[in-house]
Design goal:
By secondary structure, the protein is of the alpha+beta class. The protein is 46% helix and 18% strand. The chain is elongated and about 85 Å long.
């Protein structure tokens, strides 16, 4: 148990001017902390008397982390991202933080025993909320959102292979070069990446890149280091294209140099596809059950996953973009996709 002196004047100072990336990293730590609180049975705050007879607040490691989350880290996150939606567990901490903030002027003047009582009440409240039906409902909604996205993605994949015997499947991640100052944290950055993706998809469909394009699926995500970025799955006609690495490179260069005018960054997943234990990209035949299982399983799950720490508010619009499947006239017996 560590002894911490708190005439909390220093602890309750205004929020530090850290950058948003650092803030989100802290929220990841807070989420990890909250997930451990439900199993802790010992209160993290207590009182001790020093040799001069003065009261001091004792905080164990959990108490220290929670204290900083309550009075500093979480309030700062909501200040830096006022329109975003945080993970339900972080929202619980924010509710307790607001209660401390409401009595902030008097909190510093409270006797140490009362400060400990308030902090342990916050600890108790977090534990109870984590086991509440309302919290479980929020977590189910998180999961249901993911399931709906995955079903929608898999419906598009089914439609591709109902119309094409084989497809060249490309995976690329599109973002911006952080050295140019485009971190993707502001609302204007969100509008920019949506507009840039709209232009990119138009060029994929047109003759600009000379591709026999079928469709694409893109997931907009908000990351700790990249800010707003896109995870993209592109389907080309497999009877016309076979060189997936070079084609993904061409698409990436078009994003980096033409769409974003030199501000773009690309990760070409095709280059290291041989390292994947389950392969669902590259040339995929409609009869290749293993590749289709991976495509509709691992890859689809990755594209449909819910943002763990922070989500875009609903008023910012959708985060999953699916193009129309360019249908191809088929001869012979229709193919029927197996459910997965």
């Amino acid at each position: 148990m560590e002894t911490v002196e708190t005439d909390t004047a220093q602890e309750m100072n205004p929020i530090r001017d850290d950058d948003r990336e650092s803030c989100l990293t802290e929220m990841k730590s807070v989420l990890s902390l909250v997930n451990t609180i439900s199993s802790i049975k010992i209160y993290p705050y207590s009182i001790s008397i020093d040799n001069q007879g003065n009261e001091k607040i004792n905080m164990n490691p959990t108490g220290i982390r929670l204290f900083h989350a309550l009075v500093e880290d979480v309030p700062k996150a909501y200040q830096l991202f006022p329109k975003h939606k945080f993970h339900p567990a972080i929202e619980i901490v924010n509710e307790c933080s607001n209660q401390i903030k409401e009595c902030n002027r008097s909190f510093n003047d409270l006797p140490s025993t009362d400060k400990v009582r308030v902090l342990n009440l916050c600890f108790d409240r977090i534990k109870k909320r984590l086991s509440s039906d309302n919290y479980k409902l929020l977590m189910r909604r998180f999961e249901n959102t993911r399931k709906k996205r995955k079903k929608s993605i898999n419906n598009t994949i089914d439609l591709v292979f109902e119309n094409f015997a084989r497809a060249l499947v490309l995976r690329v991640d599109l973002s911006y070069n952080p050295s140019l100052g485009i971190k993707g944290f502001k609302e204007s950055d969100l509008k920019k990446i949506k507009n840039d993706w709209r232009k990119m998809r138009t060029d994929l469909r047109s003759e600009v890149l000379g591709l026999n394009y079928i469709t694409s699926i893109a997931r907009l995500e908000f990351g700790l280091k990249k800010g707003y970025h896109l995870h993209v799955l592109i389907f080309l006609d497999g009877s016309s294209h076979s060189h997936d690495i070079s084609l993904a490179k061409i698409i990436g260069e078009h994003w980096a140099n033409n769409i974003t005018l030199g501000q773009g960054r690309v990760h070409n997943c095709q280059i290291r596809k041989h390292e994947y234990p389950e392969l669902g990209i590259g040339q995929v035949n409609h009869s290749n059950e293993s590749a289709l299982k991976t495509l509709k399983g691992v890859i689809s799950s990755y594209l449909s996953k819910s943002d763990c720490i922070i989500q875009l508010p609903s008023e910012y619009g959708r985060v999953l973009f699916k193009g129309q499947v360019q249908r191809k006239s088929k001869r012979g017996r229709p193919r029927h996709m197996r459910n997965s």
